[in-house]
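Hi all, a correction to my earlier message: I attached the wrong file for Phosphatidylserine decarboxylase. Here's the right sequence:
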Amino acid sequence: MNFAPGAWKYAIPPLIAAPFALLFSATISLIAVALGAGTLAFFRDPDRTPPPTGVVSPADGNVSVLREEGDRVRLGVFMNVWHVHVVRAPVEASVIDVEHVSGANRPAFSKESDRNERVHVRCTTESSNLPDGESEGEGEVDSSDTDSNERSHSRPDEPDDDLEVTLIAGAFARRIHPYVEPGDALERGDRLGHIAFGSRVDLLFPPEIDLEDVTVGKGDSMTAGETVVLEAPVGGEIDLGFGTDVDGGGLEDEGGESRA
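and the right structure:
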């Protein structure tokens, strides 16, 4: 079993104290062992296998937020204490910015959690699992292009991003540990970081995504790196997860000429 960084720092003290506590009380010793084992369970980091296509959930937990924010859609996943706390990349992408924002430590399921301490991981992507924003309105001037340009200049201090994953601390979870930095290339399902003892992870989709495109709803159970939250476009490339893409339209019947 793999563990997220920092697991042993929290687990070792109660495990070391357990045998000494046995000299005074078996109950206290058992509590110390339980605390150590529970801490390791909180920091467990199992391997995950993404499905062949689709945008995957960045976190384990249950969908607690699904709403439109301007021209974009936000999906929030609330992690409870028994969930795996390692956050994963929803699509293949390039990290362009990692920003830590100080804030409060309100319960992650409350409306006030939007002001909590958080880390934004902003990315650009050309993933075949997302629709092409240029595929609509060919030959016409689409007003959304103007809106997109205005949006890209509305945050002069922040780089333009295609999608954003936000790790949000809660009332008890006060340590956010990002694993990535600007310039890193990510594959779908790669580890982005972890939040010690849980909380919430948000995924802000690109502007091309509408609320009805999302395939999950509030309350649905998520598995990071495996649960599909947005299906790949019909007729798009098939991401086999091995560093190559296969275009379904380019396959020939058996017995046809082999491709160069």
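Sorry for the mix-up. Residues 7-42 form one domain.
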